[in-house]
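Hi R.,

Here's the chain you asked about this morning:
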Amino acid sequence: MDEGRKRVLLIAASILAARKLAQLEPGRSPAFESAIASAITTAERIMARIDSRWPIPDRSTAPPRQGNGGGK
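And here is the predicted structure, written out as tokens:
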């Protein structure tokens, strides 16, 4: 998994966990650890569904990207 995808999973998992974590007492607890693990699992499932619906094209067979014509 590349670094960009890891960042996306981190952001998604953070958003998913925030609501549940806001209801917990401060500090580490089994509930805290469970909420984080659940959010990561859910974020991974979401990414897998996105990948299956919109697969990333193989870069070796994709046509080259065209520039915008400008540039310095």
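One quick note: The radius of gyration is 18 Å.

Cheers,
M.
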